[in-house]
Amino acid sequence: MTSELSLFPGWPPAPDPVFFAGLALVFAGLAGEICFRRLRLPRITGYAVVGLVGGTLGLSSTLDAQTSAAIRLLIDLALGLLLFELGSRLNLKWMRANPWIIVTSALEALLTFVAVYAVLRVFSVTPLTAVLIASISMATSPAVVIQLKNELRAEGQVTERLLALAALNSVYAVVAVKLVYGWMHQAYHSSVWVVMFHPLYLLVGSIVLAFVLAKACNLVFRSFGSQDHHAFVMLIGLIMLMVALVHMLRLPNSLTLLLAGIIFRNLEERPQLWPAYFGTAGWLLAVVLFVLTSLAFQWEYLALGGLAAAAIIVVRLAAKVVGTVAVAHQAGISYKQAFALGLSLCPVASLAFVLVADTYDIYPQFDPMLKAVVMCVIALLQLVAPLVVYWALALVGERKD
C-alpha cells in the first residue's frame, strides 16, 4: 500500500537538471547585463564567468550520463545553428572577385598551425597531440564572432572579413582534425581499412548531408519566402533534424552545418540570406553555449596544461596578426585594418570544445594533455578575447554600440 507521505515532496527537496539550467540562465543573463551596462564589458564575458563559477562549484561532476548526453546534444544544436548562420554569410562571389581573402585565410591558418605545433613540441607534448591541438587552434570561435558582431552592431571591411575568415579557418580546423583521426587509428592499432576510410567517411558524409540540408532549406525559402516566420520555423526544424541525423550517423556536426550554410548561401544564382529575425532564439542558444562550454573547465587542468596554453595564446595571436598584415595591401585593406582583423581572429570557444569532445568520444583513453591545454585556452580566451575584439573593432571605427 502506498504511503500517504509519498504524495508529498521529500525533504530536503532534490532539484532536477531543469532547476539548475534555469538558475544558470538567470545568473548568466544577470552577469551579462552587469558586464555590458555597468562595466562596459562584453556580455559574453559575464556568461563565461557564470560557467566558470559553476564548474568551480562542481556542478559538471554532478551530471549523470543521460544528462551529459542531453547537454552535448544541446551544445551541438546551438553550435550548429550558429555555424549555419556563419556559413550563410560567406559570399563565394566575393572570394572569386578578391582571391586574396582566401590567401589571407590560408596564410593565417598555416602560420597558426606551425607556431602552435612548434611551441607544443618545446613543451614536450607528443607529436600526435601537438598536431591535434595545432589543428584546433586554427579555428576562430564562430559563436563569439557572431554574437559580438550582433551585440556591437559592427559593420565594415574588417567585420565582413572577420566573418569570412572565421568560416574558412573553422572548415580548415575541422577537416584537419578529422584527417588526423587516421593517424590516431594507426597509433591505436586499428585496421588499415579504418585508418584509410574513417576520415574519408567523415568528410564525404558531411558534404553529402550538407548539400541535402542546403537544398531543403532553399526549397523552403523559395516556396514561402525568406521573410516568412513560418518558413523560419521549418528552417530551424530542418537543422534540428540534421543534427539528430548527424548524431545517428556519427558524422561531424560542426562541419556539416557550416558547409550547409555556405552551400545554402551560394547554391542559387540569387543568394539566400539568413533571416534577420533569428534574434531571441539565437541569443538564448548562444548564452547556453557559452555557459556550458565554461562549465566543463576544471582547475586541475591548469597544473597539466596551463603554461603550454598561455604560450599557445601568445604565439597564436601573433601568427594571426602576421598572416593578415603580410598580405594586407594585396587584399585591399590598410595595415591598421589588417592588424585589427588579426586581433579579432583570437577567440577560441565552443568549436574547440566540441572537437576535443569528439576526439575523446572515439578514444576515451587518449592523452589527457589535449583536454587540459585546450580547456585552459578556452577558459582564458572566453574572458579575454571578447575584450580584444571590442578594442580591435573600435580601433577601425566599426563598433556602433
Automatic annotation (TrEMBL):
The keyword Transmembrane applies. GO terms for molecular function: antiporter activity. The chain crosses the membrane at residues 18-37, 44-63, 69-88, 100-120, 126-150, 162-181, 201-220, 232-249, 274-292, 299-319, 339-360, 372-393. GO terms for cellular component: membrane. It comes from the Bacteria. Residues 25-392 form the Cation/H+ exchanger transmembrane domain. Keywords: Membrane, Transmembrane, Transmembrane helix. Gene3D superfamilies: 1.20.1530.20. It is found in: Membrane. It is a multi-pass membrane protein. One of its GO terms (biological process) is proton transmembrane transport. PANTHER family: CATION_H+ EXCHANGER DOMAIN-CONTAINING PROTEIN, NA(+)/H(+) ANTIPORTER-RELATED. This is NhaP-type Na+/H+ and K+/H+ antiporters. It comes from Pandoraea pulmonicola.
